[in-house]
Amino acid sequence: MTLCCCLLPFTLKGAGKEDMKWFTDAKFGMFIHWGLYSQTAGDWKGHPTKGGEHFMLYERIPVKEYALIANDFNPTEFNARKWVKTAKEAGMKYIVITSKHHDGFAMYHSACSDYNIVTRTPFARDPMKELADECRKQGLKFGFYYSLGRDWEDPDVPTNWPTKAGRSNTWDFPDEDNKNLQAYIDRKVLPQLTELLTNYGEIAMMWFDTPEMVTKEQSRSIRRLIERLQPHCLINSRIGNGLGDYRIIEQKLMNEIDPKPWEACLTMGANWGYNKYDTVYKKPDMMIRNLTDVVNLLLNIGPNPQGSFPQQTEPGLNAFRQWIKTNGEAIYGTSPWHTYGETSPLAHGKREEVKEGFHDAVFDGTPVNAIPDFRYTAKGNHVYVIVRHVPAGEFTLRAFKGYTDRIKRITLLDNKKTVEWKPTEEGLRICHIRRSSDVFPVYVLQVEMQAE
C-alpha cells in the first residue's frame, strides 16, 4: 500500500489557537509505554537487560526471536476503564500511549502489518480501541505515540544517532547504505498513521519519537496526511524538521519562561517500560515539584505484563489526587507570570543537583534534591505562589517588588484561610503561616490583585 501524500493539493496549516488552547490549559497528562518489552520485565535469557525498553537493540536480538515474546503476552488484567479513571482522578487531562515503539510491534490491530497485538498474541484484543472509547466516555483527550525514525522490525530504516547506524537493526539488516527510508514510510508509516487516524475516533495528538533521518519533505507528507484525516490533531516537534506544533523536553526541567507551547515528558521510575528491577520511584513531593516546574507534564507509567499499573505508582498517583483536589486552580488554565520563580533565602549556598548521563534509553535529568523555592502562575486577577519545601512560616517574595500596591488579599488554597502580609522594600512579606510538620511540603498561596 502506497500513499502519495506529498501530492495533496494544500499547504501545511499548523495548529490553530483553539486546537492548542486545550493543551496549554490542560497542563497534565499520562504517558503510557506498553509493549512486548513489558512482558520480559527487564530479563533476557536469564540475565537483566540493559537499555530498558530498548533491550532488543542492546542485546542484538533477531526479529524472529524477539517476536516470540508475543506468544506469552496475555495481559488479562488490562482494564481501560480503570486506567482512564486512575488518570482522571490524579488530575490528568489527556493520555498518550505507545501505538508502535522502536521494536516495530503495533499495540493495535494493524491491517498493513500482522506484527501486532491482535494477530500475534493470545490476548487478541485491541487495547487502543478500548482506551480511545473509554477516554471519550470519561472526558479525557487521547493521543498516540508513534516511533517514526526507528523500527527494528523493518529492513529499510537507517539511523544516524549517535553515529551512523547507531540505532539501526544491523544484525538482521546489515546493509545500512542501501536502506530505503522512503520505502519504509510508504509501506508502514503512512498506512499505519492512516489506520490510527481513521479507526479510533478523534485523536487529540500524534506524539512522534526519534525522527532520525526523516527528511523535510517526508515530515511534510506526514503532516499533510494528519491534517487531512484529523484537522484538529496536534503534532509534537519530533515529527522532525521544525514542523511540529509544540516542542518536547525529555527527562529534564526548564527554569525559564518559554512563551511557545512545550511539554516535558518524565518517568515515575527509572524506565519508560515496565522493569521488575525498577523498584525505586520518584517521591510524591518531587513529582509534584516537577509538575509545578513545567507548562505541560506528561508523566509516564509502564504497565506490567498482566496489564496493571505497578504498585510503586500508587503513592505518587494518590499524592497527585489529593494535591490537585485543593491546588489545581494554580495549575489548570494558568499562564506564566512576569517570572517563573525564585529561590528562598533559606536555600543560600545550596544548589539544585541534577543527574548527568547518556540521554536515550535510561536517563533522568530531573533534580535529585528539593531546594526551598517558589514558582508563580497567573490566571485572571490572581497570582499563585507555589511554595516548595519552605519550612519557615515567614518569608519575603522578591518577585512582588513593585506589585504590592495592587494586592487585595492572600489566602491559602488548601484551607481557604487568610494569610497576613505586608509590603517591604524587598517585596512582599508573608507572615505567620502555621503548618504542621507532617503536611505536604508543597502548598499554594492565592494572591488576589486589583485589575490594572
Structure description:
23% of the residues lie in helices and 21% in strands. With 452 residues, the protein is of the alpha/beta class. The strands form four sheets. It has an eight-stranded parallel beta sheet, sandwiched between helices. It has a five-stranded antiparallel beta sheet with strand order 11-12-13-18-15. Strands 14-17-16 form a three-stranded antiparallel beta sheet, with no helix packed on it. The radius of gyration is 23 Å and the shape is elongated. Mean pLDDT is 93; it is low at 1-10.
Write a short abstract of this structure.
This protein is of the alpha/beta class and 452 residues long. Helices cover 23% and strands 21% of the residues.
Write the layout of secondary structure elements.
Blueprint: H1 17-26, E1 28-32, H2 36-40, E2 43-44, E3 47-48, H3 55-58, H4 63-66, H5 80-89, E4 94-100, H6 117-120, H7 127-138, E5 141-147, H8 181-198, E6 205-209, H9 216-229, E7 234-235, E8 247-250, E9 262-267, H10 284-293, E10 297-301, H11 314-327, E11 335-343, E12 373-379, E13 382-388, E14 395-397, E15 407-412, E16 420-423, E17 428-431, E18 442-449
Order of helices and strands: HEHEEHHHEHHEHEHEEEHEHEEEEEEEE
The main β sheet shows up as: 8 strands, parallel
Structural class: alpha/beta
Spatial strand order of the main sheet: 7-6-5-4-1-10-9-8
Number of helices: 11
Low-confidence stretches: 1-10
Q: What overall form do the CA principal axes indicate?
A: elongated
Beta strand %: 15-25%
Total strands: the figure is: 18
The average pLDDT score comes to: 93
Ends distance:
59 Å
Radius of gyration over C-alpha positions, nearest whole angstrom: 23 Å
Helix content: 10-25%
